[in-house]
Inverse folding.
DNA sequence: TTTATAATTAACCATATGGTTAACTTATTG
DNA sequence: CAATAAGTTAACCATATGGTTAATTATAAA
């Protein structure tokens, strides 16, 4: 039972909860990039990207080195490890609990019993 | 390279980016609970919890069975698998890239070279 | 049938978020 | 030095978020 800092997790998950930021991270996974290059693929202004980068940096997911007027961004894997740790830890228990419930339903009602799960609205 | 639905990930990460919701999920990992029981530990109103549950349900992280006037909540592990998948997939590449950079710095500047990493503002 | 319980919905509020354009700072280059 | 380029900061705006209290719905119990 590792103890994950609450605000670290919150910041990390919040940073990941945006498609633009995830795309930036995915791109950075292929190597360092400067801000303007990172901004290119997106249909939004540079200041918008600048803000996204600040969120990512605030969560510790990226770091930047300033070289003249060029800001080079690169990934920092630590917070992702924390997020991953939290998910991994819980996922196991959840699976167990989920499967235990499934077996319980199998046993009590049998495989031919009417479907008692809630309808999905996928 | 699995293809994760963008909005599923966004909804999942957003749902996880709140300490109250994570606490609810952690509690549900120990077994099904009704809404009022889930609300007890928190210093906030029932409607607030109700909203949190709706967010979790919207992200597919929990399901509920309505039994009379009692709503039983339980976990649904699928979206967490997706989130975990995204993180896992990227984390590997990030680590590689990170370690490659570290080795590169070792080689070019040597172990005794001056520290060229940016100062942390922890 | 009246009353109490479980939970949601409605209406509202303050603050956060994600975007914009314009202005600014700091380097680089002619 | 003047002009350009990289990027951030400032000011602003619309919408989303997370909370509140009051009202509402639906079930259970007296």
């Amino acid at each position: 039972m590792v103890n994950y800092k609450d605000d670290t997790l919150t910041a990390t998950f919040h940073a990941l909860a945006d498609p633009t930021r995830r795309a930036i991270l995915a791109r950075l996974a292929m190597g360092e990039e400067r801000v303007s290059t990172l901004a290119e693929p997106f249909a939004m202004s540079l200041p918008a990207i600048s803000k996204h980068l600040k969120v990512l940096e605030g969560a510790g997911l990226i770091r930047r080195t300033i070289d003249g007027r060029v800001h080079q961004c690169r990934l920092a894997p630590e917070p992702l490890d924390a997020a991953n740790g939290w998910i991994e830890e819980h996922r196991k228990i959840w699976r167990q609990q989920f499967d235990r419930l499934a077996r319980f339903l199998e046993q009590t009602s049998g495989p031919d019993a009417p479907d008692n799960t809630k309808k999905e609205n996928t």
Summary: DSSP finds five helices and three strands in chain A. Strands of chain A lie at 33-34, 62-67, 70-75. Chain A touches chain B through 40 residues (CB under 8 Å).
